[in-house]
Amino acid sequence: MSFFQGIASALTPAGLIWTLLIITAATFLHELAHYALARWQGVKVSSFSIGMGPVLGRRTWRGTEWRLSLLPIGGYVEIDGMAPDIEGDSVRAPTRGFASLGALGKIAVLLAGPLMNLLVAFLIITATLNVNGLSTPIDTQISVSQVLPDSRAQALGLQAGDTITAIDGQPLPPTYQEAGQSKPGWQRLASVLAVSGPHTLTLKRAGQVRTISFDWTARVGGAQQKLGVAYGPGISVTPLNLPQAAGQAGKTLVNAIPQVLNAFKNLFVRFFTLNLKTDEGVVGPVGTVQVVSQAASLGGWTLLGIAAAINLSLGFFNLLPIPGLDGGRILLVIVGVLRGRPLTFTQEQAVTAAGFGLVMLLTAFVLVRDLARFF
Known about the structure:
The chain crosses the membrane at residues 6-29, 107-129, 298-320, 350-368. It comes from Deinococcus rubellus. The protein is of the alpha+beta class and 375 residues long. The protein has 11 helices and 12 strands. The model is unreliable at 221-225 (pLDDT under 50).
């Protein structure tokens, strides 16, 4: 498969459309929170755009020009007093609007956007848990999620929803050793099918126990592709009421903090060492479209889970103390408080420009790293 064929297969129309919709919605809510906190404090907001680039339509409402722009890749809000005043050839520090707010007022406006994304993620996770319950993996079982048409698995009678409890008459262990590594028991299917010979699968279906016997010729490439099944650990579902779901969603967000920070740390290490090796912690635009495409094929709740993850990532990323991001602007406000006086306009502009440049380089690096997978 060529580079362009690989890109084309990754950027499916459905995945691309859903990705744009999710990111645009997440950005809209992010900017809407900035807008709301600014207006609540009496600060004028001159414009609010859904999308970027050339403006397709505009309408003024409550003193703000609401725009619909051509490129559906986010949006922006222009808050009075955040940008410098430009008159002719002179550039001056703003003294009104946002610039006139106290430290707490400025932090409230800046913090509102990331907190909105975290709130959206929290609400999506809460709703998912309340409707679907808490799923806990069972490593001593294999859950078959998909059987490919015209595959060996279909010929053997395997069906989506089957639960495999034993292989070759042996119950699946919680863990097993292979090549010096400890693996969960549900992965044993791939290990067993790496060996040619007669095999049996003991499975449960609709409360009935069945046994499937077959002769197998091992092939290079893995059982999942050659047998024609998609599978994972068994799942135990615990129903949750709304308060329980909210509590579990809160734990999920708290537990995500070290994972997200570690993912960003690894990204920065790879960025500064120019290491193009991909990792599971941070994906670029192409990887995001791939993930969303897979989620869309699995159903609405899976897609909502991806929307929660994107909001979570957007919220945490904007809280990073990098000038140009919300977290960086908050850091500059705090530095001004600790110094007893804010940074000068020139200093703040220089630091923000450097931070913005870093973010652009980081974005380019992630994109190049994403595309490098297809070479």
